[in-house]
Amino acid sequence: MPINAEYRGPGELPEVIPVFPLPGALLLPRGQMPLNIFEPRYLAMVDDSFRDGHRLIGMIQPDATHSRNEAKPALFRVGCVGRITQLAESGDGRYILELTGIARFKVIEEIEALTPYRQCKVDYFPYVDDFTARKGEEAVNREALLEVLTDFLKVNNLKVDWEGVESAPNEALVNALAMMSPYGPPEKQAMLEAPDLKTRAEILIAVTEMDLAKKRTSGDPPLQ
């Protein structure tokens, strides 16, 4: 596999991938997720991904509502595979890495593996559009998205690089805001499973509007 890999379709990705269950973590195609890896099983996962040459990790959320085993929680059926595009050693046994999203997947089954980390057989074909950059972004209501972002920043006394926001394409803007949003696993999963970018933006707007309404009526303090 070349250092700079480009994936043009589902057939270019392996059917079995290591998965990293992490609640509240949302990775989307072409999005960048920083990770601080310190558990021995996930250090081994990173080492093996380089040894195997693919540098791929499937990000997926544990499904708390269906989990009976805390040591091995049930998983949601949809995740997103990413490629390690940056990696640094911390000097104290940790890896600091950046994962760049490639495509979402559906879990077919979890396989019995001898590795300390979990592995799943997955299917990328339901999300074939993920391989096309900026697919459907013309349908996004950018004005509504920026309006709710402005309200969110004001209520929570936060600032943002508006120059960067205004220059970002719709896909990058929607996905970055979704990934950085402070919402819980159900909301993150809904945004992950959205059938298209327009729907993902609509979910993000709706969830944010509900959060803002709750803060205004309850007098909750702003985020710190």
Automatic annotation (TrEMBL):
It comes from the Bacteria. Gene3D superfamilies: LON domain-like. Residues 17-212 form the Lon N-terminal domain. Coiled coil: none annotated. InterPro entries: Lon_prtase_N, Lon_prtase_N_sf, PUA-like_sf. It holds the Pfam family LON_substr_bdg. This is Lon N-terminal domain-containing protein. The lineage of its organism: Bacteria, Pseudomonadati, Pseudomonadota, Alphaproteobacteria, Hyphomicrobiales.
